[in-house]
Amino acid sequence: MKQAEGNQLQTAQTQSVEQSPASTNIQIGRDLIIQAPTPSSVHTFSLAECSFDMILEIPVQGVETFRKAFPQGSGNLTVLLNISEDGVNQQAQLQLAGQWNGTSGMISHYSEDLIVYTLSEHRFTLLHKKPIIMSVPTNLTRLRAGGHYSVHLTAFPGFAIPLIPKEVHVRTHDGMLFRVYDFKGDDKGWYSGTLSL
């Protein structure tokens, strides 16, 4: 990571991000581009030291309800995460929680545990969000490079309409990002995706 302006999360429309030989550019949604180191060897990652970057959207049918419920432009958001390794009948249970605020402009790379609500796009952006560990079996205290995992997610911004995950990345302690992809939802507001390290 560069320590000057390249150390900031930038909107793609206003500033590009240089790429160093030992890093890769990762696009989060349409607006945010970050740089992350490229894995150089096989290793494992402590789940407790990981954080999450997410973009969550309010479904179209819930936008008007949301506006009426939060006219002040702030509130609390809760995300529940269950992570399991393919072929293993155990799961880690995590929670992401915090207050969100409507904001605009640049978002600093150093902002951690941050939740931002963008009014025009009806989306929440979580950056460097550290999980609360609810329960983790021994085999899931560390995620291993080369492993394949299922991620089950549900998110509520303070009312009974679940948010839709558009982008979800797991960020390791050394800055590597791994995307959770192929999310599919059910009628109870849970979304299931796949994580490959």
Which percent range describes the beta-strand content? over 45%
Q: Overall pLDDT, averaged?
A: 77
Radius of gyration: 17 Å
How many domains make up the coordinates? 1
Helix content: under 10%
What series of H and E elements makes up the topology?
A: EEEEEHEEEEEEEEEE
Strand order of the largest sheet: 5-9-8-7-6-12-15-14-13
Low-confidence stretches: 1-28, 30-41
CATH class (first level) name: Mainly Beta
User: Major β-sheet, in short?
Assistant: 9 strands, mixed, barrel
Q: From the 3D structure, determine the CATH topology.
A: Lipoxygenase-1
Q: How many helices in DSSP terms? A: 1
CA-based shape = globular
In CATH, the architecture is Sandwich
Structural class: mainly beta
- Kindly state the number of beta strands: 15
Mind explaining what this structure looks like?
- The protein has 1 helix and 15 strands.
- With 197 residues, it is mainly beta.
- It has one domain: Sandwich (Lipoxygenase-1).
- The strands form 3 sheets. The protein has a 9-stranded mixed beta barrel with strand order 5-9-8-7-6-12-15-14-13. It has a 3-stranded antiparallel β-sheet with strand order 1-3-2, with no helix packed on it.
